[in-house]
Amino acid sequence: MLFVKKCAREQRVYYYCLLALPLLVLLALLYQFPACYPSRFLPACLFHTITGLSCPGCGCTRAVEALFRGHVLQSLRFNPVIVYCFLIYAAVLISHTAERLIHFIAKKRPSLREGRLFHALLQIRGMKIQNLHLMIFVYLFLGFGAIRILLEIWQRWF
Questions:
Q1: pLDDT at residue 1, as a whole number
Q2: Residue 147 in contact with residue 53, Cβ under 8 Å?
Q3: How far apart are CA 143 and CA 141, in angstroms?
Q4: What distance in Å separates the CA atoms of residue 83 and residue 65, rounded to the nearest whole number?
């Protein structure tokens, strides 16, 4: 873990994403068998139990299940925040891995550096998580939650 603490923030994010990858693959494999759904052991939503309304996070577990089973549109319907987080996760992994592979190839095969295409590929940099990504997450999370609550209130009282 000392190696992870000494490197830059973007590299730490990439390393943590790499560390989470086997766990995500294992969960995706578990969700392929209906008898093994890990979400069966999670407690019910406390906000929904008390108020009868859905909180902004309601549907996240079902959205993860749907995403792991490959149902992206169903996951978006349950809670779009999960698909957004998956897209950011995939973008970080793919961009940093591409950067490392291209620079590794450039070190091993210096003769490839003269090509135009390879020179363009050398410009690829790993994605940096910025405040904008966090703000989109917060607005998506709260906006979807507010719209969901307003629709539930509208359906009950009107």
A1: 47
A2: no
A3: 6
A4: 11
